[in-house]
Design a protein that fits this description.
Elements (H helix, E strand, L loop, with lengths): L5 E6 L2 E6 L10 H16 L5 E6 L4 E3 L12 H20 L3 E6 L2 E3 L1 H6 L4 E5 L3 E3 L13 H9 L1 H10 L3 E2 H6 L5 E3 L4 H13 L3 H14 L4 H14 L4 H11 L10
Parallel strand pairs: 2-3, 3-5, 4-6, 5-7, 6-8, 7-10
Antiparallel strand pairs: 1-2, 8-9
Bound molecules: 4-(N,N-dimethylamino)cinnamoyl-COA.
Amino acid sequence: MDYKDILFEVESNIATITLNRPKALNALSSEMISEIGDAVSRCESDDEIRVVILTGAGDKAFAAGADISGFKNKSPREIIPFIEEGHNAFRRLELLGKATIAAINGYALGGGEEIAMCCDIRFCSDRAVFGQPEVLLGLIPGWGGTQRLARLVGMGRAKELIMSGENIKAQRAFEIGLVNRVFPAETLMEETRKFAGKLAGMPPFAIKMAKYAINHGYDMALDNARNLEIQCFSQCFSTSDLEEGLNAFQEKRKPQFTGK
Ligand code: DAK
């Protein structure tokens, strides 16, 4: 698939997906969503890719939400394919068997915040602005925001943000646990790539299993989730990387993981 609304680059085992409609503040169009879905599939199937960074083009926005220019005069039935396409692509990103980092370089509003919440880790610039302003349009978050925001920052804070439609700045987003780290705008990408490089050096199967256990165990009863963890833990014993990790520890050297 040729991409029009995103950029896709791979370097040093790190794929970068850039939402690329800067004139519309990277608003998520239907085309962009299907391109994201395609890029996620490429990341899943390419063993060279170990970490994925999601960011926005330009210095103003990560993504200012779903592209609302096509929302007028749509009936509930007409809007469903757009909802489902976004939901499916976002969920595939969330469950991708590799580490994902959102590098939030500006506005992350509505669908922009929702797609960032599908990444494992969120880093943002000190100029980033977050919000779920859908209620101001007569809507509610429609790409998982009512669910993922509550899980990430707690129900009370999620309701406050979603019901008021108020925006918050980077420091507040950090305080409530919506983002992991805040960097000066000038160093956001450099710091994100540095961290992505660190994760790219980890044994990929262990990363995949850790992510699987966290994502799938999160909504289970604790005893079921513990069983899932046991399964994921034991699967690591089928890898050469575990052997290498244990040998390197004994031999007091740095492990050389091969991804096998
Ligand atoms: N969609 C389309 N175009 C957008 C846009 C958006 N969400 N956000 C900005 N733009 C466009 C503007 O129209 C403008 O285009 P031109 O007029 O230059 O052609 C250009 O980007 C620059 O924006 P501004 O001129 O407004 O820039 P400012 O610096 O003055 O303001 C702003 C920046 C981020 C505060 C402002 O642009 C803004 O409030 N944007 C809209 C934020 C927003 O309401 N986002 C949408 C949230 S609703 C669904 C699933 C999900 C969703 C909905 C349905 N289904 C399941 C069906 C999600 C909905 C949302 O995300």
